[in-house]
């Protein structure tokens, strides 16, 4: 739109370097999955090793020549690097190879552009793309001189590059304002759920860990599910009833990936805030993945970026159907609190254990028991009914009322605490 680049195609040469200067290198298998998810047809995979990237072309002259030969031999129209390239490196490599070059950030952005379905999701992807594009506007322009003077040629005195930057900035500002409105609307929804004392449970985890499949199992929903990276971009929320706890809101969120580009974290902040404001996080893990410990650490890194790392978490080890002779179970700490659940969202095995564990974790914030309310305390009885805290009531012959109550601890402190001292205190018949 704003600059000229070589045309792209589906035949792609993939390039992955092991850099000794990087502590946590990318996984070549994940890189190939990303390329396939974007619709590329990898025809050659080139590996290499360097102590550090070449500042001009990222790879050395010999490796660049190897890539050129692969492009020519396979008639490829696209070269994808499993690394983040600077704008000048991308430009220099394209000039050398005479074909389109894409780095890891651009690849993920392309996948996001294909997956976004809602208006909000498309806005977030466009914002990330524009921010990425803003650093690459110099590519391809050969007419950057000032506009000429004379009749019919006088202009605002801008170069084409300056004009493009101004248009780009205006579009970014427009999208940011619209996403700001979305963020405010989401915040209103969160405040409404807070007033209704509805707990929010958010599914988080590495991409393709099975979050949407699990969401469908727990809610009987029909969320889009595919065995591919970033199948879900747009958040989906459903109300779920839990035994002995009541209603909660379950939210499905975008999956994370190793070294998720910061531009995407910023663009999807409105969506990720659903996780940051959750009462409980369900951290879904692919139990069959060999590097699941590393993937869990990557998810934790993104949670830190969105200020959600300190929220209560329940680990959900999914895909146990891919393990040999493994039965669903709940792992608990010494106090009996559920820490992890092992299940298979695909088969449904163990999902009832997850519901049980969620109810226990959310139940820690609930007060339940049997309360004796005197006739002159009818106002308290009415307040308890008003917030749907009464599960059952029984009247005695003298007019006293026995109430079986279940309510959030915050409501308990607000309504009952003033009555719990002195002669006006309701009597606890049984507290669970």
Automatic annotation (TrEMBL):
Annotated Gene Ontology MF terms? GTP binding; GTPase activity; guanosine tetraphosphate binding; metal ion binding; ribosome binding
Coiled-coil-forming residues are 158-185
Q: List locations, semicolon-separated.
A: Cytoplasm
CDD domains, from UniProt? HflX
Q: InterPro entries annotated for this entry?
A: EFG_III/V (IPR035647), G_HFLX_dom (IPR030394), GTP-bd (IPR006073), GTP-bd_M (IPR032305), GTPase_HflX (IPR016496), GTPase_HflX_N (IPR025121), GTPase_HflX_N_sf (IPR042108), P-loop_NTPase (IPR027417)
What is the organism of origin for this protein? Microbulbifer okhotskensis
Q: What is known about its subunit structure?
A: Monomer. Associates with the 50S ribosomal subunit.
Tell me which residues bind GTP. 205-212, 230-234, 252-255, 318-321
Q: PANTHER family from the entry? A: GTP-BINDING PROTEIN 6-RELATED, GTP-BINDING PROTEIN HFLX
Q: Which residues bind Mg(2+)?
A: 212, 232
Q: What the protein does?
A: GTPase that associates with the 50S ribosomal subunit and may have a role during protein synthesis or ribosome biogenesis.
Write the protein's name: GTPase HflX
- To which protein family does this belong? Belongs to the TRAFAC class OBG-HflX-like GTPase superfamily. HflX GTPase family.
Q: Which GO terms describe its cellular component?
A: cytoplasm
Q: Which gene encodes it?
A: hflX
Q: Which UniProt keywords apply?
A: Coiled coil, Cytoplasm, GTP-binding, Hydrolase, Magnesium, Metal-binding, Nucleotide-binding
